[in-house]
TrEMBL record:
<dbReference type="Pfam" id="PF00535">
    <property type="entry name" value="Glycos_transf_2"/>
</dbReference>
<dbReference type="GO" id="GO:0016757">
    <property type="term" value="F:glycosyltransferase activity"/>
</dbReference>
<protein>
    <submittedName>
        <fullName>Glycosyl transferase family 2</fullName>
    </submittedName>
</protein>
<keyword id="KW-0328">Glycosyltransferase</keyword>
<feature type="domain" description="Glycosyltransferase 2-like">
    <location>
        <begin position="4"/>
        <end position="115"/>
    </location>
</feature>
<keyword id="KW-0808">Transferase</keyword>
<dbReference type="InterPro" id="IPR001173">
    <property type="entry name" value="Glyco_trans_2-like"/>
</dbReference>
<comment type="similarity">
    <text>Belongs to the glycosyltransferase 2 family.</text>
</comment>
<dbReference type="InterPro" id="IPR029044">
    <property type="entry name" value="Nucleotide-diphossugar_trans"/>
</dbReference>
Length: 344
């Protein structure tokens, strides 16, 4: 089989019932297999899958390993040339496999591809978790073609040209299976959130290209696992972002970036506190404490990442502050931040 489309499930029967039919309907069986890897669900997801979707391959994991390690373990059990990591709250469309697979087939330097992600709640707008492909600023803040911080753009065809990107959304990520394994897959210690950005940063720094093919369109609900204001989600996002920076940022940048991030993170905690989100404020403090605890264990990982890096600087990393551009210059759309990179 050329492609394995893998959905990672944990107690998600309702999402599977709603969105898996589109995946099965629009995934030709002569090209790809549809796989559900179950992360030790305690609901009746597995029984439902066996009854209603007998053609879907099941991988049963013994417990909830989280997004990162759950996918790592599932991908160990595929022999396909390409793997698609697909969230269970994604509705795919006819022909969704075509453009990404053509991109991978045409150029061996392309390691990963994402389609255009639109919001299923409002189909005329991009979806927060990937839009038309991700970039990052010099301080580790991710943004997208079509989404900058909290501002999500309407899709007017402005990003319909295929383009190089720094990171592809884990909501729908096409990747070469052998490359995924070669670079170590997703970081299991992240558990969930920003693990795909870390993986893509590793890929890009080692000379692989990542692409967005907007001719392929999927609709993503988003926030299906953890609510936007969940303190645990805040903790994971802040901790994992710091770990990702520490793992991947070159030596010449790291001290300055980490000093400023300390200030910005505590400012974010203060903002949470003053706006009535005390638990989220505490989550930021806990995230920084946990980062300090984990940092020594990540030092060998950082050394190895930098040793294998062949691309510096990375073209899809904005060499200035996203926060300054957004809040002080009013640049709240990708075409305002990077006007020369709309087409590629």
């Amino acid at each position: 089989m050329k492609v394995s489309v893998i959905l990672l499930n944990w107690n998600g029967r309702k999402l599977l019932e709603k969105f898996l039919p589109s995946v099965v309907a629009h995934t030709p069986s002569d090209v790809a297999e549809v796989v559900v890897a179950d992360n030790g669900s305690t609901d009746d997801s597995v029984a439902m899958l066996r009854e209603r979707f007998p053609g879907v391959r099941l991988i049963l994991l013994d417990r909830n390993y989280g997004f990162a390690e759950g996918y790592n373990r599932a991908i160990e059990q595929t022999t396909a040339e390409y793997t698609v990591l697909l969230n269970t709250d994604v509705e795919v469309t006819p022909g969704w496999l075509t453009a990404p697979l053509e991109e991978l087939d045409a150029d061996a330097s392309v390691a990963a591809v994402q389609p255009k992600l639109l919001s299923r709640r409002d189909r005329s707008f991009f979806e927060y978790a990937g839009a038309a492909g991700g970039w990052i600023d010099r301080y580790g803040y991710p943004f997208c073609r079509g989404r900058v911080l909290s501002v999500v753009e309407e899709d007017r065809g402005q990003y319909d040209t295929p383009a190089d990107i720094l990171w592809a959304s884990g909501a729908c990520l096409f990747i070469r299976t052998n490359v995924y394994r070669r670079v170590g897959g997703l970081d299991a210690r992240f558990f969930a959130h920003q693990e795909e950005i870390d993986l893509c940063w590793r890929l890009r720094s080692r000379g692989y290209r990542l692409r967005c093919t907007p001719q392929s369109v999927v609709f993503h609900v988003g926030g299906g696992t953890l609510h936007t204001e969940s303190p645990y989600k805040t903790f994971l996002n802040f901790r994992n972002n710091l770990l990702m920076i520490y793992k991947n940022l070159p030596d010449r940048e790291l001290p300055r970036v980490m000093r400023l991030r300390r200030v910005l993170d505590y400012f974010a905690a203060l903002h949470f506190l003053l706006t009535g989100h005390a638990k989220n404020a505490l989550a930021v403090v806990r995230a920084r404490r946990e980062f300090r605890r984990l940092r020594p264990a990540y030092t060998p990982v950082r050394v190895e990442n930098l040793r294998l890096s062949t691309l510096d600087p990375i073209p899809e990393q904005m060499n200035r502050s996203l926060l300054a551009a957004f809040y002080f210059k009013g640049q709240k759309q990708f075409d305002q931040l990077m006007p020369c990179r709309i087409k590629n």
